Amino acid sequence: MKRSNPIHIILAALAILATLCSCSQEKKYRIGVSQCSSDAWRSKMNEEINREIMFHPEAEVEIRSADDSNDKQIADINYFIKNKFDIIIAAPNEADAITPIIKKAYDSGIPVIIFDRSINGDSYTAFQGGDNRGIGLQAAQYARHLTKHGAKIIEIRGRQSSTPATERHLGFLQGLSEKNDMDIVGEGYGDWNYEESAHVADSLLNLYPDADLIYAHNDIMAIAASETARRRGLHPYVIGVDAAPEIGIKAVADSVIDATFLYPTEGHLLVRTALKILRHEPYDTVLYLPPSSAVDLTNADILLLQNESLREETSKIKILKGQVEEFWERHSAQTILFYAVIAILLLLAGFLFLLLRTFWQHKKHQKVLLEQNHLLEEQRDLQESLNRQLREATQSKLMFFTNVSHDLRTPLTLISEPIEQICGASNLTPRQQTLLKIASKNIRILKRLINQILDFRKYENGKLDLHPREVDFCTISREWAESFRAMARKHDIKLQITTGAIKSR
Ligand code: FRU
């Protein structure tokens, strides 16, 4: 079985903690919105976007406004590209100027939704916007409803190179051509803003003071034209486009302008389309939002009331969302704390386990060592007893040899005496002399051997001193050989001693 390593336990605990910390409301999608301008209409749209995003906690949105500057909008979109936003939603300020940067984003693989204003070409993922031609058409029909046959009209267009200006103009022309009963006597570009429109309106009213109606492509330009006309003491009908509550509808309710046409914002649809694209769900590649009927004095107040209650609801939702977020944060903090405590407990358990294991191992080692020690002691005792037995056996043997040697010496002495006496006799044949010499010599050898055994005993008991003496090794060797000569002859063995020159020292 694999042993559970406490380091692994610790690492697992930390991993769990890290996962728990990181999974607190992770944002999966980042949506970049590039608005070409900042005004009441776009604020309404931004509010819708922000309201919708509240219902999609997995997504976050960053809205940037270019304030009518192409350069600023290019920089904003570049920022989204550089920061790897998942999707870009853009209302291009001017088609020609903004097309290349949109193409760059699209070509780099970032999905792009174009809304409100368009670009040249089709380098985008989806388009969503109001039906500007339809709005122009409705405006012409409403102008006909307000004026008499042969009415003179001044048209104040948006910015020249922004597509809604072209579309709203073409739609208006289409509406006029239905009956050919009204004339555009003067026209100019108000660039979607108050100052430019006031300036254009002033010059045109100067030329055409008898104009019956001013058609401005948005409400802010319509308000500028109306106020300019009134300053001149003129009271043409003025109609605009957008119907943003704070500006257009209010201007209608205050009778500053006569009518406005709702240019749908539908910011929530933009967010939904973006999320569909990101989740690879089916979506509308082109979505034209249909125009609604004109806003005039008959419905302006009710629309303002509706807008007011919508705002209240929105602020309530915001408060609720804030509370939910607060609760969520508190809950996340408590969850993290809870898991942190668990992780710490796991760590402690790990350390405790480590400690106990070390302690157990130490004890086990100690036991093994004691056992080994015990075994060694037993072996040592055995060894000692064996040694003792060996010593005793050796002693007994020695004693035996000593005793035997003692016993041998006496008869040997008794043999040697008569032999010595015979050796001294004068009537011996040489042969007899030789044999007696041999016998006498071997008796001496035997005596010496017995003495040596007895000396060994002394040596064992530490009573023998060493007395080295010089001998003639050749003579001794020859004497020894003599002892064996008779035996050798008997067995037909040739015994010969060869010695070199002896160097006397
Ligand atoms: C806002 C605005 C609106 C107009 C739209 C056209 O920036 O000028 O008033 O309807 O843009 O793109």
Describe this structure in words.
The protein has helices at residues 6-22, 40-53, 70-82, 95-107, 132-146, 163-177, 194-207, 219-231, 245-253, 267-278, 300-423, 430-461, 473-490, and strands spanning 29-35, 59-65, 87-90, 112-115, 126-130, 151-157, 182-189, 213-216, 237-242, 259-262, 286-289, 294-295. With 505 residues, the chain is α/β, with parallel strands linked by helices. The chain has a 6-stranded parallel beta sheet, sandwiched between helices. α2 (40-53) crosses α10, α3 (70-82) runs parallel beside α4 and α7 packs across α8. The structure holds beta-D-fructofuranose. Beta-D-fructofuranose (FRU) binds at residues 37, 39, 41-42, 116-117, 158, 162, 164, 192, 218, 241-242, 263.
